[in-house]
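Researcher: Structure prediction, please.
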Amino acid sequence: MPTGKQSEAALAKQLIAGTNKHLSTLSTLMFGDGSYTPAQVTGQLQNLATLRDDVTAAQATTKAKLAAEKAEAPTLIAFMHAFIAFVKATYSKQPDVLLDFGLKPNKKPAPLTVEQKAAARAKRQATRQARGTTSKKKKQAIKGNVTGVVVTPITAPENAPATSSEPAGQQTASNASPPAASTTTVGALATK
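Model: Predicted structure follows.
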């Protein structure tokens, strides 16, 4: 059985052709849960094929319309923004007219009073102090002091493991370390 909507529609068309060629002389076809005339069978199959053909045509139309929108929309949007700027400039003092165009009038903030300006400045300064923000020059002048640091160099251990290809425990006499007693003796002889 074919899979996919396109192949199902193609199969429906083939079934219609086969029904018209071989079963059109029969009065009743019995299958599934009922009996059907050859005209009913071809009608149902044609409905399936037509639905798929309609969807395919709609998809092609949609793709063409999306491509047209993608090509033309940027220019049209730029045109619309230029027109909006013109309308706002022309009717900037008439908010009712701007609303007729679907535009909101520009809101200008009310000027601050002397007391509001002084309060805002005090708040800014308090925020800078609380956050510890400073200028570039003040930041560069700040240097950190470090005291009481002891640097200890890392050295290799005296009895580093031997890297030989022989298995552990089977070192030759030349690779083995001398016993601790003989090392002490040699050190004792050297001091005499």
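Model: The helical segments are 5-22, 38-90, 95-100, 114-131, 136-141, 180-191.
Researcher: Thanks, that helps.
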